[in-house]
Amino acid sequence: MGTNEYALVTFPNPLAVDFIRTLKYRDIPFALMVNNDRSRQEAIDRGIEHVILVDTTKRKNKAVPEISIGPVYIFEESLTLTCRYLQLCRTWTSKPVYVITQKRHPSAVYTKLGANYVIYTKGKDVSFILQKE
Fold first, then answer.
1. How much helix, strand and coil, in percent to the nearest 5, is found in the chain?
2. pTM of the model
3. What are the average pLDDT values for consecutive 10-residue runs of the chain, which has 133 residues?
4. CATH architecture classification, 5-132
5. 5-10 sheet: strands from edge to edge
């Protein structure tokens, strides 16, 4: 990851919370992508400095983060929301985009929308993904 790049993470589940802890522990700069004010406020309350609020209801969302985005880690909450996040953030980076899922949705959908890797796990730790960077 470049010196001024931020990993971009979504925040829907305990697996993502643990992943964020690992990023903090390793001093990897990151930003959180959320799609509602409640999640944004929760992230701010947790001390997360960079929170990117996106509108996932608009088809042509032109929001572009003010920070440089490196790798993207999308923790699946739903098929629909994951697809919207992919559509929004794929153009923000040339680095890999990971979708981490605990569901058996067809990975081809995510790769077609720009995910470089779709990782299926029932585990509680996905920090191994950071070894690829």
1. 35, 25, 40
2. 0.91
3. 83 86 93 92 90 83 85 93 92 94 85 94 85 60
4. 3-Layer(aba) Sandwich (3.40)
5. 51-53, 30-34, 5-10, 68-75, 97-101, 117-120
